[in-house]
Amino acid sequence: MKHFLQYSNRILVTGGAGNVGSALVGKLIQDSDNFVIIVDNLKTGSFEKLPQSGTNWKFIKCDVNIWEDIMPIFLSYNIDYVFHYAATVGVQRTLENPVSVLHDMEGIKNILNLSKNTPVKRVFYSSSSEVYGEPVEFPQNEETTPLNSKLPYAIVKNIGEAFLKSYKLEYNLNYTIFRFFNTYGPKMHPHDGRVVSNFIVQSLKGDDITLYGGGQQTRSFQYIDDLLEAMIRVMNNT
After folding, report:
1. Catalytic annotation present for 153
2. Who contacts 149 (Cβ-Cβ below 8 Å, separation ≥6)?
3. What is the pLDDT of residue 205?
4. What confidence tens digit (pLDDT) does each residue in 133-148 have?
5. Burial class for 102, CB neighbours closer than 10 Å (0-12, 13-18, 19+)
6. What is the 8-class DSSP label of residue 104?
7. Hey, how many other C-beta atoms are within 10 angstroms of the C-beta on 112?
8. One of 85, 153, 167, 184 is an active-site residue; which one?
9. How many CB atoms lie within 10 A of CB 122?
10. pTM of the model
11. pLDDT-derived band of residue 191, with 50, 70 and 90 as boundaries?
């Protein structure tokens, strides 16, 4: 077993026991040049989503919103890349716990303050399609659509994007922002209230499929494997 300093890339994945984070970890550890440090507070993530094999990863239970939790990890592992995916997620959960969502701003600041003072080459941030808010034109245009969402979850994601842009300007900390659009895949919780999981659960039970709104609206969905391919390609080409 190699020491972590012998790997070409030491990669921190926060929220690495969650849906997207754990899928990303599984993809990253397939590359023998990568050593992955997985952190998660396990409030919504779970041990079952951690890798079941391999020696090029380590899990640390940690709350990135608490400086004393996350700071020693940066000082110990000489991290090259950070995927900051830890967040309070789920439509119902974020609506019912808006203050908890706001606490995620501390995690964003902790990650960036530690990254700018260590050898981190780039921070990858999980933003959301929710930052766009209500569309003002169809189809939406990236250049003209205002980021007008009023939901606490989306506001925090928007603030996170602003932090990244500011740290690039002031400290030259490189970053990439991914705005996820309704990602679905085999590791998602079947009862988290998301559209695709609702459809699947209702179909398996033989129930009628829920018709949302008037049935005329459209929505973007992305399968987890497509998202993983994009994230890995971006990391390997930066």
Report:
1. yes
2. 130, 131, 132, 133, 134, 155, 158
3. 87
4. 877 777 777 777 777 7
5. middle
6. H
7. 24
8. 153
9. 16
10. 0.89
11. low
